[in-house]
Design a protein that fits this description.
- With 345 residues, the protein is α/β, with parallel strands linked by helices.
- 43% of the residues lie in helices and 12% in strands.
- The protein has 14 helices and 8 strands.
- Strands 1, 2, 3, 4, 5, 6, 7 and 8 form an 8-stranded parallel sheet that branches.
- Helix 5 links the parallel strand 2 and strand 3.
- Helix 2 packs across helix 9.
- The longest helix has 16 residues.
- 48% of the residues are buried.
- The model has no long low-confidence stretch (mean pLDDT 96).
Length: 345
């Protein structure tokens, strides 16, 4: 296993079988995490990029079995934040909190048309920030329109590259369309963000290996990996859920094979363990997304229960993040955090 870790660290390439071996192994996790941390340091440095997350709508037309925002969840209080308030939140994040990237995230809410979203994008871009969208599947023409309005990045998670599993847990969705949408992000000139859940019922070790190879195949710029946490108002409420250890291993191997991409330490990791994000930052991650959504709305954007930042104000969340970063000797970047592709060492 240690030889495989060294191979990944030095060549940034592993076969499916080699990935499965490392994911199955239970003896060399510390060595794997240390190798990912070394590669992270070598390729993207010790600075951590902070992205201001605005969850502007929890309406969703989709009915994914693992998500608390699913269409059939009648126990959720739905909300939409109006365009002016979205801008004010972004303005506070940029001018008062000093954050260099705004992330606009929502369910698949058809109320926010291309025209409305482009208006919001253009307004936020006057703040001299990078802008990421995470709003679900759109057409290539829509992606191009968002890019023309000023959007820089788009996050569209594949969730799992196991087609049968995807169709089982994402009823009414098309796996092929999902993959094409992710590819279309690059065609539109946007940075490609994707990611997976770890621990879905029926997910196999081989699936995680395929996920990592998929990230490489799509030439990803950012990958978010989070453990699956069952929500009580979904069909998967009684599932076991994912573990932090497995999620960290998938993340660390992603860093080893895609050494210069941006990888967030996800909130779901912090939800499973009080030091989950810190562990992620020490196993390959280099991004944290402080939540700047108004607290009155944040509690209703419940993809999964127990989100760690729900009851804090945006300023309190930022203070906690900065303390976390300082505690491990890392620093906050003052750059906008674009993916800088580097020659492999």
């Amino acid at each position: 296993m240690k030889k495989l870790i060294e191979k990944a660290k030095n060549t940034h390439s592993l076969s499916r079988e080699e990935l499965v071996s490392l994911l199955t192994d239970t003896t060399c996790s510390d060595e794997l995490f240390a190798a990912a941390d070394d590669v992270r340091r070598q390729y993207v440095g010790d600075e951590i990029h902070l992205r201001a997350l605005i969850e502007f709508s929890n309406f969703c037309k989709n009915n994914c079995c693992y998500c608390g925002l699913r269409r059939d969840n009648k126990n959720i209080e739905r909300y939409r934040i109006d365009e002016d308030t979205i801008f004010l939140l972004a303005e506070h994040a940029a001018r008062n909190m000093g954050l260099k990237t705004i992330v606009l995230q929502s369910g698949k809410d058809m109320f926010f048309t291309q025209e409305k979203l482009c208006n919001i994008i253009r307004k936020i871009k006057t703040l001299d920030v990078a802008l990421t969208l995470s709003i679900g599947e759109k057409t290539l023409e829509e992606y191009k329109a968002y890019k023309a309005a000023g959007a820089d990045r788009f996050l569209l998670r594949i969730e799992t590259t196991d087609k049968d599993l995807y169709l089982r847990h994402d009823p009414g969705m098309s796996f092929e369309n999902r993959v094409q949408c992710i590819k279309n992000l690059g065609l539109a000139g946007l940075e490609i963000g994707s990611g997976v859940l770890v621990g879905l019922p029926g997910q196999k070790i081989e699936s995680y290996a395929d996920d990592i190879l998929f990230f490489k195949a799509i030439n990803a710029d950012m990958i978010g990996i989070g453990p699956f946490i069952p929500h009580p108002d979904t069909p998967l409420k009684d599932a076991a859920g994912g573990t932090l250890e497995t999620a960290l291993k998938v993340m660390a191997l992603t860093r080893l094979l895609l050494p210069d991409i941006n990888i967030p330490a996800t909130t779901a990791m912090e939800t499973l363990a009080p030091n989950g994000q810190t562990k992620a930052l020490q196993a390959g991650a280099n991004v944290i997304m402080p939540n700047v959504t108004l607290t009155q709305y944040r509690k209703h954007y419940e993809l999964y229960p127990g989100k760690s930042s729900t009851n804090y104000t945006s300023d309190e969340s930022l203070r906690q993040v900065r303390e976390k970063i300082a505690s491990i000797g890392r620093t906050v970047s003052q750059a906008k955090g674009f993916h800088i592709r580097k020659p492999l060492a």
